[in-house]
Amino acid sequence: MGVGKNLLMGIIYASIAAVIYIILPWTGIQAVKNLDLGGITINYFREGSYLNKILFYIEALGIVQVGLGFAKGTSPGNSKRKAIFSIAQIFGSGIYMYIIKFSGLSRIPISIENFGEITVTFDALMYMGFGIVLMNMLLSIFDLIIVIYRQKTGFYIDKDKLVKQERISSIANGGRGVQ
Amino acid sequence: MRTQLHVKYAAIAIGMVITYQFLSIAQTGDPIIDTLSPIMSYLDEFLKFFAQILIPLGRIVTEALIGPTIEYLPGEEAGSMGFATYFIIFAMIIVASIYLNMIWKPRGWVKKEDIESKSEDSTTSKAGVSTSNDSDTGSTRQEDSMFE
Predict the structure, then answer these.
(1) By CA distance, what is B49's nearest residue in A?
(2) What gap in Å lies between CA B146 and CA B148, rounded to an integer?
(3) What ipTM was assigned to the predicted interfaces of this complex?
(4) What is the pLDDT of residues A92-111, one digit of tens each?
(5) Hey, is the C-beta of B32 within 8 angstroms of any chain A C-beta?
(6) A140 shares contact with chain B (CB less than 8 Å)
(7) Kindly report the CA angle at A96 between A90 and A101, in degrees rounded to 5?
(8) pLDDT digits (tens, 9 = 90+) for A57-91
(9) How many Cβ pairs closer than 8 A exist between chain A and B?
(10) Contact criterion met (CB < 8 Å) for A98 and B66
(11) Facing residue for B51 by CB, picked from A1, A128, A142
């Protein structure tokens, strides 16, 4: 895969990361700010500081995730770089989840008519999410080890080296070389 | 990178279960939710099975790895400078990845088996061409002999 294709893949990965980490959370939060389900009202952001804090972290950490997605996409296949950037992206998503959890997004205050107010907490679900992050991270580290091992043992061969060898051999044979 | 896909599918399955779980909490008399509610107990068991493994792991990650890292990150209280830090990190990653693509192994790595199979294919196809040429020449020779 050449540079142009790598950059195109990077743009695609970055767009996916932008949708997952910035656009969807942003629009989702804006949509459920004050939800009325006929008698049940979800006042998600009664305190303005919570909203500002969460939106700041969605933008700030989301943009870093977009960068990491671009780096992962531009990395060539079966390379150490790709595995390293995927580990970084998974770690970044862990931080993203953690900050959003402690900004108050995992606790939803619900007021029910003629009953009062309850707060539904999703802390256990967030911990489950962190568990998935850890498993993903361990698998990515495992992938990195496999890639390093296979590159060293010659299971994977560097395409750049192959192209250079082809050029040299074609020049030696009297041709003009591979363009 | 194939192993990672299984976890992604598991994550999607868990996400769906969580959605069903949330729907069971927010019952509004909707026919779809009423249809789904008998399945909730089974889904609950499924979710609990995953929760028993994943929640302790999640606690380890938050307390040992992510928690200490977050102390060093600038927050909202830092103002525009706080956001600038993240933007600089983003710009650095983009520039570094473009630079690495320009100079360092942009074509990537391929399996040795694939190259070998390709080279074998090319040699067999070349051999096939040469035999057909031979047969062609053979046929012309036959024709020539007929005219003679």
Answers:
(1) A128
(2) 5
(3) 0.78
(4) 888 888 887 766 666 776 77
(5) no
(6) yes
(7) 130
(8) 888 889 999 999 999 999 887 888 888 999 999 88
(9) 178
(10) yes
(11) A128
